[in-house]
Amino acid sequence: MALKQQQELKQTQRLSPLQMQVIKLVELNSVEVEDRIKQEIEDNPALEVSDSGPAGEEEENNDVPEDILSQEEIILGDYASEDDIPDYRLNGSDRKNETNIVEISYYDDKSLSDSLQEQIGLLQLDDQRQLIAQYIIGNLDENGYLQRDLQSISDDLLFQQQIEVSPLQMEDVLYEIQDLEPAGVGARNLRECLLLQLDRYEPTPAVEHAKEILSNYFEEFSRKHYDKIIRQMNITQDELRDAIHEIVSLNPKPGNALGGTLQTAMNNITPDFIVDSYNGEVSIQLNNSNVPSLQINRSFSEMLKGYNENKESMSNDDKQAILFMKQKVDSAKWFIDAVKQRQNTLQRTMEAIVNLQYDFFLTEDETQLKPMILKDVAERTGFDISTVSRVSNSKYVQTNTGIYPLKFFFSEAMQTNTGEDISSREVKLILKESIDNENPVKPLTDDQLTKILNEKGYVIARRTVAKYREQLNIPVARLRKKI
Hints:
Layout: H1 17-26, H2 30-43, E1 47-49, E2 104-105, H3 112-120, H4 127-138, H5 150-161, H6 167-178, H7 190-198, H8 205-216, H9 218-222, H10 226-233, H11 237-248, H12 262-266, E3 268-269, E4 273-278, E5 281-286, E6 294-296, H13 298-309, H14 316-356, H15 358-363, H16 374-381, H17 385-392, E7 396-398, E8 403-405, E9 413-415, E10 421-423, H18 424-436, H19 446-455, H20 462-471, H21 477-480
Parallel strand pairs: 4-7
Antiparallel strand pairs: 1-6, 2-3, 4-5, 7-8, 9-10
Helix pairs in contact: 1-14, 3-4, 4-6, 7-8, 8-11, 14-16, 16-17, 19-20
């Protein structure tokens, strides 16, 4: 078959650098955007933070040349006036001095690892056992559990420190760690964690019964087969109740008593939006406190001005330098525009959510929440559903009574027996309320809960009740039973 050339015309869609920047920025929350801006300023010398004060106060830079250069030359005149304060600062208050923005932070001066390392240093351990202890502590999760097996940690010591340690030696050091505070730390499973804590209790009959239950009847206890435990242990119901009281008073996550891991210590929530309701009106503010004003670096503007005046006498090296500047200015311009579009996208999305859930923001009564899905917001804003999804993820809004994730306002639609559309969240509230008020000795089954909801006018199937119960992290009736 002979080779031949032919022309083909086709149309494709590609994301521009600006669109790619916007997509990435929209996904970030306010704290992450602040870090991203700092990183961009470090990487791009053409970008800087404006120190001229609030947006709109600075006059335009009239010293920048306005001549448009030819296409054959390196075109830079278009960028020379980009050091004006961007428009996105006009659309939202920075709120630093206006509103008391609540920031929920979780922090502890001393983490679990720090506390254990400090306690290990007080023990009479030789250098090798100290090193083993450090490796074991380093493998504890944020709850204080040792999820890895000792053989794997022993292999790490051999490969990284050239120290050969048997699992038996590892276990001896683990026992030392399990004697440290908080009680239960270093356990390899929940049963061991609870038993480690009971070992420090005074050996009363209730404590001894609790130990026996955890040691020999843990499966029956976890499934709440209390009658079987009473028969096999030959104890009374009161004795079982006392033993269970001792068990439920224990801490299943001892690591949480301290700061936990570094990641836990650094967790914080800063609202991306502030919604206030006053005198029957709802106002929306975009939290711009972490988004500084950006502009093109002034030194770049001066150099561009010099190029415009002396372009005829430039050497090749000068032109290469100008080409580098053009690339950096392009990148800075795209980034400034991307930040502006991000702010606009977030503002419009939040306005749509508030309009759809206006009654809730006015009263902050969860029963006022209406069914709302991503498509509803997309239709109001004109954005794609994927854009609304990116805005909704990891974003928070501060209201008069607290901070909510944006996902909180999205829920499925259900119908009552009168045909009225309601939010699934309203059904979940009634479901939770029914379970909270149930008889703990005879908790309500899913069938009984379905009947209660049907009697209240909600058309719902048993499998849907089970799904909502699981979403509320509520166990089945058998596991809610108390004696």
